[in-house]
Amino acid sequence: MNCEFVYQTWNVQLIRCRRKSVGIRIDGTGEITVRAPLRMPEAEIRKILESKRSWIEKTLQKVKARAQEPKLTEEELAALVKQAKKVIPPRVAERAREIGVTYGRIAIRKQKSLWGSCSAKGNLNFNCLLMLCPEDVLDYVIVHELCHRKELNHSVRFWTEVARILPDYKQPLKWLKNEGQSIIARINS
Q1: Domains defined for the chain, CATH in brackets
Q2: What pTM does this model have?
């Protein structure tokens, strides 16, 4: 059911799945993935792509600009890991007390897609690139992962817990969505 087609000058990866609406995603390399309902005609998908044309072109321009940004050297990444190992654990401990949760080990990684994660066992992973983000963004990622200790999903209850701790969490989340990819793009492939 999955296929690839060309629309305008774009190569589009089409994934048919059980969903009711069309989702369009552009990754850090500029690959366009469209997830569409199983029975939706390709002509309708093409119409949707056309309606989103300006957003797609703008996003592809951003991806191209990010690719031109200077890459971080191994030494710079090592320095960010070292800094993160000093900064993040005490902040996690402070926020965990506030939220009323426990956690396992904390790992700092050089990741190309995730800012943080929480395992079912309570182990936390954080991206060293958080050291290049504003403090409220770092705090949001920490709170987000710790709230997974109460809700290991992204349900309404999870977001209610995040909002209880950080009422203005939507601002750093928006910053990550708008600016985060330009920071992640600085890691060499």
Answers
A1: 3-68 (no CATH), 74-184 (3.30.2010.10)
A2: 0.75
